[in-house]
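User: Predict the structure for this protein chain, please.
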Amino acid sequence: MKLKKKILALFLCVLFAVSTVGCDKTEGSSESAGSDVSSAVSETESATEASSTVSETSSSVSDASSTVSEVEVVDKDAPEYLKKNSDGLLALESKIRNANIIASTAIRVSGYKLSIRLPDNVKIKFVKENTDGTRYQILFDDILAGECYINSRDLPNNTEQISSESNTITATVDVKKLTLLYKGENASWEVPVYQLFVRNQQAQQYAMFYFRQDMFSYNKIIEMARWLDFGYLPETSRAGEKDYSGKNCTILILGNSFIYSSQVFRILQDMARDNNVNLTVDAESRGYATVQTYASDPLILQKLRNGVYDVVFLCGFYSDMNSQLEILLNEKSNSTKIVIFPAHNEAPNVPYKTKTLYPETGIADWKGFINKLIDMGIDYSRMCIDDMHKHSTNLAGYAGASMIYSYLYKKAPGDGAAGEMVIGEQISYDVAQRQVESDLEMIRKAAYDYLYN
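Assistant: Here is the predicted structure, written as structure tokens:
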């Protein structure tokens, strides 16, 4: 047992890309990876030495500077932060396990965005980019807690995989419990890590995250995995350029039966009322309507020419609608913004390709946000009606309304915003009211994050 503890502690000093003198470089990592990480570790020794003593039990640890009455030194050469208390847990481990998953981090990769939500005090630091991929360090209080490899399937330097246990979280995210064998000059050590793999199937972009199991609980990893996303991102922001806070704003939502089934327009109007903003919402929800439907409607075109609306949220991109969109863009007044707002049954990636071709448009990805919420654990049946077209429910409408609100006002809707209609619908699906209220709070915050983070 003591030998196992000694092996683990010694390896924690050099985990994830610590190159030992004389060891070969692993494909996809930089030649300077070892010196980078060794430097990072050595710099943290002095910074953490004063705050590394721990309390007798991990449950009472709230600060890494707690006074210690019983400390087991697992290796005489280990830095202070690797010393364990009588329960065998690190003070740092207790801190990271109790941290909230709130910090949003985004990495841009060739027009795509890798998004992950991390615990407090956990940061991602760029290390190296080369032809084999890009490498980042994951730091907790400046101590190495993991690594991220983008478009590279490499393991951390000087390691090989000797066992694994897989768990698919979403269609694009997998979690594995791995045991890695670290190879030093004179010895080898087994180290347990979590591996998160996320992919963008259309773009063939992917990323590998490695997290130390001694610093992250499995539940924490699963929570992060549900937020993990590698999505398409145009060069311009998904969010609106103009903030309508304190201003009168009139918008039009153009779509088909998905607009009506979800009641997104009515929920948004109620949301504006509950948040005391001056928003007028008009909507058109014609069955089977596409962009072409409205591009050939004289009344709609006249309203666009007259500048009746500040913003038009446009559904109906079921195929290449570029020529029809050009009609709307040419007819609208200079004061009107057209925002692509895809319904849940629209063609994948067509709205983003259109946005790239017409950068003057905006995009609020209603479809993508609904899929994200389903990935995060909201049951598909609560978002999609069981009919031929899988129309969107009021809960999906609430997601769309929260997204439009966040787009217009650059902030999430306030607490308790316009939930009555949705709560009634979801209770009819045998969902407890308390659960629905919790979901609505999460959706409001997640809509803002989806647009801006």
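Confidence is low (pLDDT under 50) at residues 1-95, 234-238.
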